[in-house]
Design a protein that fits this description.
Chains A, B: Its EC number is 2.1.1.314. Two copies of one chain form a homodimer. The first copy, chain A, has two domains: 110 residues, 3-Layer(aba) Sandwich (Cobalt-precorrin-4 Transmethylase, domain 1); 163 residues, Methyltransferase, Cobalt-precorrin-4 Transmethylase, Domain 2 (2-Layer Sandwich). Chain A is 34% helix and 18% strand. In chain A, strand 10 and strand 11 form a beta hairpin. The longest helix of chain A has 15 residues. At the A-B interface, helix 1, helix 6 and strand 6 of A face helix 1, helix 6 and strand 6 of B.
């Protein structure tokens, strides 16, 4: 059996009881480490499971999946994914390859940012499409959400296992430390792009929420206008951002206002009354 | 401490290790039983926790929350919610009341249908707003998703603790067994509404996926056109439905086609080529 197991959002104890049973029954355990960044170290997982864990990078999963699936017709193998197995990527290739080899697959779900974001005070029903802040087509997608008044969850870019130009030129497999986009950088870039495109997907006075370390003990939400939030200090990763759509309900407003620093609350209310409540 | 703990989608072993620790440390345990229907019985939870569990119905949570919160400044109390605590409802009132009473609150997240739906083969990024099939404003919301080519997750109506007219008239607190909308009923109603409104939010040949018992051992996906799926047998609850948006990617198509009964695959491909691929 191949188990694909969500680890949830924070630490080693966010695995489900069912997931932990599967890990304990497995002969080999792989940890997917390229679409997201674990907020805990492999060593902590190993201590908790009392078993060794192998890091599975993109090369291994995409080019050498038969190594992961080796003999999984006869023994259990666990493939661990931060969040839910169907978060950032669906690991479709691995599932299809397992099916070709006659290996049964069981998915063990967990929380991901896609549902935990409900903690920011906005209703999940009022979110439009989620966007990923990579330099492709995110702007029109935000605009589509804006045009119908929906909230937008923006997942910020994470760079893992990137090589420096020098190391790449010299063919040295030395990787830079992981880099995380901050809410501040994201907001700066967004506001610059809006300046260029002027299509009104959002603006300096659009209400937003910086969401950091979601689902962990140090989770924090800071609400304000986009231009106010540029200067807030959000601390350690991971960061994400929610742009608030015009359809914000008064009850959502009241919850979100509680995440607004005191000096910004008057402005927050003023903009809600001016742009949202109508 | 008030712990608000997601139970996940299927059985008692879908709670996280962290959630189970919180339950074990609690003096009282409440199970929220009005916004969703647990697929396992209270008795199974009690056996697994080795502790009594109190069912919290809407009256208790909305009118008598101080009973739930009693002395939670000094002892731990667990409030269990099927799925994730921020799924259907956000339990905002309970959190606000706890804060007023100086009771710390900790949320323990879990999977909900909002992320587990990724198992149907469609990318979460390509979903628009989720709709709830209650007789209010769902139609314009589906239309908004359709117009920009996004998928729509439709959560079907669940009726819990409803009284018959006779029992209500006689003031007898006898409740009907829970009732679940089936994919079939949902599709019939949707197609009737489209016949009346003719705004083109969808039609008999729109591609869709019936998703049943998501996250459980008997989970099943059946893909087809809306009119084909009306006649499929989806079995026991819970049911939900996904309408596929025009932006479906070829990789999504290939995954979803594998959920299509063989006799319907040719039609499925034909419609994909005619209406989606362009």
């Amino acid at each position: 059996m191949l188990y694909i197991i969500g680890l949830g959002l924070s630490d080693e104890r966010d695995i489900t009881v069912k997931g932990l049973d599967a890990v304990k029954s497995s002969e080999r355990i792989y940890l997917e480490a390229y679409t997201s960044v674990l907020m805990i170290e492999k060593e902590k997982l190993e201590a908790f499971y009392e078993k060794p864990v192998t890091i599975a990078d993109r090369e291994m999963v995409e080019s050498d999946s038969d190594q992961i699936l080796d003999n999984a017709q006869n023994v259990n193998v666990s493939f661990l994914v931060v969040g839910d197995p169907f978060g950032a990527t669906t690991h479709t290739d691995l599932v299809i390859r397992a099916k070709e080899l006659g290996i049964p697959v069981q998915i063990i779900h967990n929380a991901s940012i896609m549902n935990a974001i409900g903690a920011c005070g906005l209703q999940l029903y009022n979110f439009g499409q989620t966007i990923s802040m990579r330099p492709d087509s995110w702007y029109p997608r935000v605009k589509e959400n804006t045009d119908i008044g929906l909230h937008t969850l923006c997942l910020l870019d994470i760079k893992v296992k990137e090589q420096s130009l020098e190391n790449m030129a010299r063919g040295r497999l030395i990787y830079e430390p992981p880099r995380y986009m901050t809410v501040n950088t994201c907001l700066e870039q967004m506001l610059e792009i809006e300046e260029l495109r002027k299509e009104g997907a959002y603006g300096p006075e659009t209400l937003a929420i910086g969401c950091v370390r979601l689902g962990t003990a140090t989770q924090q939400f800071i609400a304000g206008t986009m231009e106010q939030l540029v200067n807030e200090d959000f601390g350690a990763p991971l960061h994400s951002l929610v742009l608030i759509g015009k359809r914000m309900h008064i009850m959502e407003f009241e919850m979100v206002r509680s995440f607004c620093p005191e000096q910004h609350q008057a402005k927050f209310e003023e903009i809600f009354k001016r742009d949202y409540e109508a």
